[in-house]
Amino acid sequence: MASRQTYKNDNKSLRKQKRAQHRLVRDLNIKASDLPTRFLMVCNAGLVTGFKRETLEDIVADILPVCKLSECSFVMPPGKSYCFLDMATTQNSKIVYEKVHGCMKLPGKTTPFYLSYVESVPTIEDDYMNAALPPGLKLIEEFVSEEEEASLLNSLNWNHNDKTSSELKLRQVQHFGFEFQYNTNLVDPEQPIEAIPKSYNYLQKRFEEHNCGHYKYDQLTVNKYMPGQGIPTHIDTHSPFEDTILSLSLGSACVMNFKNGDKKTTVFLPPRSLLIMSGEARYVWSHGICRRHNDVIKTENGITIRPRTTRTSFTFRKVRRGDCQCVFPEFCDSKRKNGAQKINENIAPSLEECYVHQVYEEISDHFSETRHKQWPNVSKFLDTIEKGGLLLDVGCGNGKYLAGRPDIIKVGCDRSNCLLEVCRMRSFEVYLSDCLYLPCKDNLVDAALSIAVIHHLSTESRRKRAIEELVRILRPGGRCLIYVWAKEQRRQSVPSTYLKFSTSRDKNIETTKCHKETAHGVILPIHENRTEFVHGDVLVPWKRKDGGNFLRFYHVFQEGELVELCQSIADAKVCDVYYDQGNWCVILEKI
User: Fold this and answer.
1) C-alpha span between 591 and 442 (Å, rounded)
2) Which of 1, 192, 298, 401 stands 20 to 30 A from 591 (CA)?
3) What sequence ranges are listed for the domain Fe2OG dioxygenase (predicted)?
4) Could you write out the three-class secondary structure of 526-544?
């Protein structure tokens, strides 16, 4: 129970109230009241701060008679550091306000509660918690008894010398039957390890009774999670295991998050419950457990938090021999390996139209807002152009390289009408053009730029064609600067700016959430932003400020690839090659 102590710092109390009231108007459009009302806001305690509904109920129960307490209701908004009381009458509200505000300390803290009268309380309608379960997901509560739970937990040996036990970065793990290889997300069916203990056989019989798959499970992964630990969001790789995957939760409860595109839901996993993932839930929806010490859950009385203790999960799988036969090719590694059609000249134009040109038309405003400063090494190249020289910026975007150098003639071209409009508003000389067919005479310009353009072309021959066009329009002795995205986003252990802006803790690993089968028959991986590349041809997400999501095609160049391509161009020589913040760069001179 929170302790009571009169807190007399009225100025501080008023500041706390005003700050919370401004936040409330901003968040929920609810106004404070200068006069007492039946509605109270707890300004500095909520689910985000670890404040439980049950604690609030106990505080009020200690102040009001039972008959009046039954008329009260409590509202705990998810993701907020405040909460509300509907006290049924203004008189009840005044009693609680006078006993709690500035007088009673927060549980386990030295600061007091700050309360405020408000005009209303919100109606909590959290679609995230009420969303339907993914197809193929089922939860069986009390799958094992408390005695069986204790027996299973006591059967484990977490000795680090045990060959079945290991410690990952975020948890301890043991494998039985076959070892799950976290570096590849695969198993080797030809390398069995210690079998699943025979003392667990009764679980297999119970699986059959509940129709949990149609095979005998032969692989078991046991994970031990301490409070605050979790697992990153992921989709289990398709090919290593058969359809149904079972997860038995022992010890602590937790919340598991499921997501498929814009659809998401949470599933509360009580102790001794069995989660069954099959079909779409297993093959398409990603799942994970956030690293936190408390979970927000929904009870019969409303939303509250539940502290985590040590949780142990038993995940049963059936090892597959052969390729996956699912009907979800966009997410299937077997389909990617065996069914992907190579990008060829016939489909390249339409693929680029869909995943490059149309996308830039949609994101042009947001894209332009993120492109302001000239890159230093590009500026140095521009400084080498002689006074009166003619520069063509091929793929000029919003024209950031057309600014400055008033002593040279600067012209830009781009495939995006919307980006060209941005340039025209800035009074730049620009025109619409495809980089593969520049409407320019031979030997025309003194210098050319191609910054972050050629990596959007989907075949080698088209990339070569774009460089040939740059060389064709250069006068003899003229130079062009080419920048393309590098597959290597880390040089001499130093991450590029692209990786430095990552919010992920594991910046050295690409997490390919899924692949997409385009309308052109090509299956391409969707790259995880701000991680290193492991594929050459990828779709990279762009999230617009208004929430729109788009995929852009990129061919990321390996070290030496751009140089080799440039060296194959007639009438040109490579003058310089360098790496610049995640890009391979070449200066090419026409001879």
Assistant:
1) 13
2) 401
3) 216-320
4) ECCCCCCCCCCEEEEEEEC
Same domain? 166 vs 313: yes
Which domain does 273 fall in, by range? Answer: 129-324
In a domain, 341, yes or no: no
Rounded distance, CA 220 to CA 316, Å? 5
> Are residue 473 and residue 374 in the same domain, yes or no?
yes
In a domain, 141, yes or no: yes
As given in the structure block, the two tokens for residue 177 are 């039957």
Distance CA(1)–CA(107), nearest Å, equals 7
| CA-based nearest residue to 538, from 286, 351, 267 | 351
Domain assignment present for residue 20? The answer is yes
Which pLDDT tens digit goes with each residue over 153-196? 999 988 755 555 556 666 799 999 999 988 788 899 999 999 99
Query: How many folded domains does the chain comprise?
Result: 3
Interior CA angle at 73 toward 71 and 77, to 5°? 175
In which order are the strands placed within the sheet that holds 245-251? 137-140, 274-277, 245-251, 311-317, 219-225, 172-176, 165-167
72, 89, 124: which is the final residue of a domain? 124
Structure confidence by residue, pLDDT tens digits, 1-28:
444 444 444 677 788 888 888 989 888 8
Please write the tens of the pLDDT for every residue from 379-388: 999 999 999 9
